[in-house]
Task: inverse folding
């Protein structure tokens, strides 16, 4: 009976440890890259290949989910910043604009408004 053994065992262990550290640090793209490098060292017909491929699928899903959440969060942050500005301009903007126009018209006429 012939048993195949993994040739790159030490390197695979290092890559798995690196991937785990990256996941714990929240760096999912780097973890995915480490698992991809590990996958390249494994024969396709091994159980380990299937396990690493599954981890890659899970990481891809988590990365996609994080991107979607960050996009949504950024959109609401923009609304939170722009919303009060619009309210200010609608309520106080006319008064501020009138003052600025008065100052500009005095400067154009040659008068010094603040002496």
Result:
């Amino acid at each position: 009976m012939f048993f195949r053994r993994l040739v790159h065992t030490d390197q695979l262990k290092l890559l798995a440890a690196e991937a785990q550290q990256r996941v714990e640090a929240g760096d999912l793209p780097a973890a995915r890259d480490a698992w991809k490098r590990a996958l390249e060292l494994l024969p396709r017909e091994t159980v380990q290949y299937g396990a690493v491929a599954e981890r890659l699928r899970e990481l891809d899903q988590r990365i996609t989910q994080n991107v979607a959440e960050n996009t949504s969060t950024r959109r609401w942050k923009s609304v939170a910043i722009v919303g009060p500005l619009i309210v200010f301009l609608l309520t106080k903007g006319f008064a501020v604009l009138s003052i600025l126009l008065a100052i500009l018209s005095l400067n154009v006429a040659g008068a010094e408004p603040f002496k």
Observations:
- The radius of gyration is 30 Å.
- The CA atoms of residues 10 and 16 lie 10 Å apart.
- The mean pLDDT is 81.
- The chain has one domain: 9-108.
